[in-house]
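Duplicate of #3305? Posting structure anyway:
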């Protein structure tokens, strides 16, 4: 069988790998300690917090079928309906919001089952070698007949540049047009429930906070714990600001100063949190004799749905 190396064990990479596995020798590599990418969950003491993607919606028949399968397997359930504003749900839009059960990361872990997923593996370069690719990691060189890059586009381009891979000028230009917003997440375990309205989440209209969720009310955590996503503008301006200063701003703006338990607050920085300029197609196969494909939530549609459909499209139509 031909070998496909998938770079990135987020939903795009895992969704593609599940389709390719069996007909190809598939290896998925990711620098993280576990699969999931931005479908991320963290434990702090007795608390469990979703600190990346907070929910997912369905806008296509294909993804509705996927989510129904997750629901049937006990991996997803309906969280709330409608849009969230400063006072909780403030408007219906016909798209239920689903959450992972018990956590968002559980969906990714399920997709990874049975696959050759190598986490804590840093890819350092992707380079052509006559009739195949070489994917260099911090532990070994992996030969591949095809490479699927699902990491954020700037990171994927950096791997190709390090390996001396020259892309077609039009492909390069299309990829360089993709842009992302950053997001700083503050995770705080509290001494009491934060008192958020149903469904345990609010989206702020202005100020430094974009989104805040109570993981206990959501059903993720056994104890009160909030995830605070700071706005793109704040995150961009304060990317290098020390954690303690970011925490002080976040808890103050949330009205939670003095309510975090000792050693119960952490910060995570998502440099490529949300695509704001996407590629129009679900994936991009680079011009050239060797199969090199780009996919992810910056291709054809953002968020969880976009990532899954991009990975599936890349596996079916591009590899």
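Output from current build:
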């Amino acid at each position: 069988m031909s070998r496909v190396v998938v770079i990135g064990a987020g939903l795009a990479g895992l969704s593609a790998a599940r389709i390719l596995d069996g007909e190809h020798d598939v290896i998925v590599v990711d620098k993280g300690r576990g699969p999931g990418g931005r479908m991320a969950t963290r434990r702090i003491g007795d608390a469990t917090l979703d600190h990346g993607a907070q929910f997912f919606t369905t806008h296509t028949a294909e993804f509705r079928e996927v989510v129904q399968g997750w629901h049937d397997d006990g991996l997803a359930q309906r969280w709330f309906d409608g849009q969230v504003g400063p006072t909780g749900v403030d408007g219906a839009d016909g798209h239920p919001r689903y959450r992972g059960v018990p956590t968002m990361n559980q969906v990714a872990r399920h997709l990874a089952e049975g696959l050759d997923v190598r986490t804590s593996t840093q890819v350092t370069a992707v380079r052509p070698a006559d009739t195949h690719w070489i994917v260099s990691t911090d532990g070994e060189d992996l030969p591949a007949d095809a490479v699927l890059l699902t990491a954020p586009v700037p990171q994927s381009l950096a791997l190709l540049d390090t390996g001396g891979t020259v892309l077609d000028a039009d492909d390069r230009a299309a990829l360089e047009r993709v842009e992302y917003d950053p997001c700083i997440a503050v995770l705080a375990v509290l001494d009491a429930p934060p008192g958020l309205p149903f469904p345990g989440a609010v989206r702020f209209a202005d100020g430094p906070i974009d989104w805040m969720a109570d993981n206990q009310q959501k059903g993720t955590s056994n104890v009160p714990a909030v995830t605070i996503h700071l706005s793109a503008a704040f995150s961009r301006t304060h990317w290098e600001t020390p954690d303690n200063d970011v925490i002080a701003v976040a808890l103050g703006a949330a009205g939670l100063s003095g309510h975090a338990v000792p050693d119960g607050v952490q910060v995570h920085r998502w440099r490529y949190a949300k695509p704001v300029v996407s590629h129009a197609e679900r994936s991009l196969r680079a011009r050239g004799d060797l199969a090199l494909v780009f996919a992810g939530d910056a291709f054809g549609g953002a968020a969880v749905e976009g990532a899954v459909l991009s990975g599936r499209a890349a596996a079916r139509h591009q590899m």
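Confirmed duplicate; merging threads. The chain is about 25% helix and 35% strand. Residues 303-317 form the longest helix (15 residues).
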